[in-house]
Amino acid sequence: MASHPLDYYWIWTPEGWTWEGNQPAQYSNTVADIQLALDALRRVNAPFQLATAGWVLGPVHDRAAFDRDLPKQVPLSAINRSTGATEVDPAFGRIAGRETWAIPWLESDNREGLAAVQLEAGRMRRDAVDALAYGCTGLMGLHWRTDMLSPNVAALAQAAWEQAWKQPAPARRWTVPGQVAQYADAAIAGTADAPLYRTCRYDLGTIRLTAPNGSYRVTLKFCEPHFKSPGERVCDVRVQEATVLTNLDIFARVGAFAALDFTWLDVTVTNGTLTIELVPRKSLPCLSAVAVENPDFTAKINCGGPAYRDWEADTGPARGLPCDDFYADWAEANFGLAEAGRVFTALDGRVPQVTDGGCPSGSLTPVKTPWNEVAPQFAFVDEFEQLRPRVRGASNIERFDYWLSAFKYLRSLAQLRCALAQPEPDELTRLFAEVYRHLLATVNTPGGLAMVVNFENHPGWGLAVAAQARTPWPKTYAGEPRLIVPTVRSMVNLGESLTLKIIALDRQPVPSVSVKLRPLGRGTWRTVPAAHLVRGVWQAKLPVATDDFEYHIEAPTAGAQTLRWPVTAPAMNQTVVVR
After folding, report:
1. Which of 125-129, 171-175, 276-280, 454-458 shows the lowest per-residue confidence on average (mean pLDDT)?
2. How far apart are CA 548 and CA 158, in angstroms?
3. 157 and 13 fall within a common domain
4. What is the largest CA-CA distance in the chain?
């Protein structure tokens, strides 16, 4: 109360509810804890309200249970399960008479890791549409980085205000949510179809299949590819809302990397949709394939994998809505070239994965596939670069080059992983330096700097590559000279003295950095020298703010070039409003 003018104080609910089954005592204790907090809120006459948030909306036995057991003045909220792979919880739609807030993941910290480009505008639109349909009164986004997430942020923000663009999602026969895992070289016991069990989806929840009304034979094919003991993944299985398996533990039945199939006959579809739900008791199993068949209709899906014999390729969950109009508008605003949006539209939800995944950044394990076979996945990089001559204006070019560097960074990472499979020390050193150069060209924020720290210190990243390289890593900056202001503020309090951290990058040390400022839109420029802290880091403390002002930063280079931030200065500068 003393330190922050809060509107709401969040109570975070148990993370274990994400995957664990019914635990009545834990739920009762959680409700009791929240009641204690509400009592404390009243006793101290707090000027804010209490709200709940969590990895899920509520416990497994009833995701909307809090609506029954907590006062209506307590808002309920939740992030999407499976780091955003799962849709907004439908249980929001069963809650009435209180504030409810959906919180989609703007970026996953698991599937791609916090080291890659994640374009998810279509998914943001889908989550916003679902949240509105379920009656949610709030919509927020969960993220760590900023610039790299700008399309996702913009899409979610726009969709929260209006959805005039809304149109039906592309027709799909089936939806299998969750995350993908692949084990290309694994030996699979108990089957003659090993390739079918070398891919899977996990954390998948509910499978929905569009099928004509009738009676079907339903088959689920499981395999445990990770755990080495029983009790790690235990769930129930419901088909058409009827429980057909309880306490399924794949490892307890057949061990690891072994096929386990279940088939149910006479499963009836009456409304055009067949649902298969995996209900966690402790985590969810890995599903390798699902088949739904009768004499007139067949759907056989190789979960997480390509087409195999008469099994369809798993092309991923139908999570995203069309977003070509969004990217055309976004590209026009960012680059002055709407056509560039086509590259982003083609990549949305389908950016090639360049790490193994895992929180927070995955690892760079070797890829045995030769680079010449992997390279076609990155044809979009050259396609995007070919548009650069058509971009006009310093700020448009700067933003375009940011994304071009991000795309080149992805491609170099993928090439580096291919080189790790047959390591040649000098080539590894060259590729590592190339990756690092492209990465540094994208760093504008503390989140970007965190990617650099990860690159230099993560045992599965730079340290793993360094162990196989013959020459030491280069210690000098090899990119284009540039100025970076990691944290940019556009508002300060009356009487506040704004302190700027400035990073000046060049192949030779920048001799000086200065800030030019004046009252907003008028007067002469006043120079404030920046103090050198260490290496390329400088700091400038601006005068006490009494009125709105504007500023830009200048730094001469050893090559007689003058660096300016922002690049449009002094014609267009950074503006600061004093409140």
Report:
1. 171-175
2. 29
3. yes
4. 83
Alpha-carbon span 280 to 209, nearest angstrom: 21
In a domain, 289, yes or no: yes
Taking the CB of residue 26, how many other CB atoms lie within 10 A of it? 14
* DSSP H helical ranges for 230-370: 250-254, 324-335, 341-347
Backbone angles phi, psi at 482, to 5 degrees: -160, 160
| DSSP SS3 for 152 | helix
CA end-to-end distance (rounded Å), the chain: 22
Give me the domain span that covers residue 104: 8-161
Which is it for the CA torsion 434, 479, 438, 407, positive or negative?
A: negative
Which residue matches tokens 């949709």? Answer: 273
Per residue in 507-553, pLDDT (tens digit) is 999 999 999 999 999 999 999 999 999 999 999 999 999 999 999 99
Tokens standing for residue 177:
């949510």
Sign of CA pseudo-dihedral 58, 157, 178, 108: negative
Kindly report the CATH number assigned to the domain that includes residue 510: 2.60.40.10
Q: How far is CA 357 from the centre of its chain?
A: 11
Structure confidence by residue, pLDDT tens digits, 255-314: 999 999 999 999 999 988 899 988 888 878 899 999 999 999 999 999 988 889 999 988
**384-412: string of b/e by CB count within 10 Å (b at 16+)?**
beebeeebeeeebbbbbbbbbbbbbbbbb
- pTM of the predicted protein model: 0.81
Domain CATH number, residue 304: 2.60.120.430
The answer to whether residue 166 sits within a structural domain is no
